[in-house]
């Protein structure tokens, strides 16, 4: 089994910054990709940013230039640096990982961390 533990959410004013972290632990052979999704009330969950273990990244258009995803393969940890935050970034943010581990290749989710941006 694999666990994802997120940290770093909170309340921030518009224009501010937050850094989210997500550490994976457990029976892990290889992490193929990690990413951050978000879900606002009444909306569908959407991919915010993803990264492969080789460092290739992709971003939601609305966060390009403001958010940066990075990965520390040695620590099995992914980070999301969020700058110039806007009220529309308010959502629960979920870490996601595609892992080859003791149970084969599976997708795991974190418990979520709330990000609230006040105007």
Short description:
The protein has 119 residues and is mostly beta strands. It is 0% helix and 64% strand. The strands form two sheets. Strands 2, 4, 5, 6, 9, 10 and 11 form a seven-stranded mixed β-sheet that branches.
The chain-level structural class is mainly beta
* Low-confidence region ranges: none
Could you spell the SSE succession in H and E letters? Answer: EEEEEEEEEEE
* Largest sheet properties: 7 strands, mixed
Spatial separation of the terminal alpha carbons: 40 Å
Please give the oligomerization state of what you see: single chain
Query: How many H/I helical runs?
Result: 0
Mean pLDDT reading: 96
Give the strand tally.
11
Question: Rg from C-alpha positions?
Answer: 14 Å
Give the % helix: under 10%
Shape: elongated
| Fraction in beta strands | over 45%
Description:
The protein is mainly β and 119 residues long. The chain has strands at 2-7, 10-13, 18-26, 28-39, 46-52, 57-59, 67-72, 77-82, 91-101, 104-109, 113-118. Strand 7 (67-72) and strand 8 form a beta hairpin. The chain is elongated, with a radius of gyration of 14 Å. 31% of the residues are buried.
Topology:
Blueprint: E1 2-7, E2 10-13, E3 18-26, E4 28-39, E5 46-52, E6 57-59, E7 67-72, E8 77-82, E9 91-101, E10 104-109, E11 113-118
Parallel strand pairs: 2-11
Antiparallel strand pairs: 1-3, 3-8, 4-5, 4-9, 5-6, 7-8, 9-10, 9-11
């Amino acid at each position: 089994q694999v666990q994802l533990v997120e940290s770093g959410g909170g309340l921030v004013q518009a224009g501010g910054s937050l850094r989210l972290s997500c550490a994976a632990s457990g029976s892990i052979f290889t992490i193929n990709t990690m990413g951050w999704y978000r879900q606002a009330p009444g909306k569908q969950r959407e991919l915010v940013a993803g990264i492969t273990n080789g460092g290739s990244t992709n971003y939601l258009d609305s966060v390009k230039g403001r958010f940066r995803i990075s990965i520390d393969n040695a620590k099995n940890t992914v980070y999301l640096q969020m700058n110039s935050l806007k009220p529309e970034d308010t959502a629960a943010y979920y870490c996601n990982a595609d892992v080859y581990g003791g149970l084969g290749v599976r997708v795991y989710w974190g418990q979520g961390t709330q990000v609230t941006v006040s105007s």
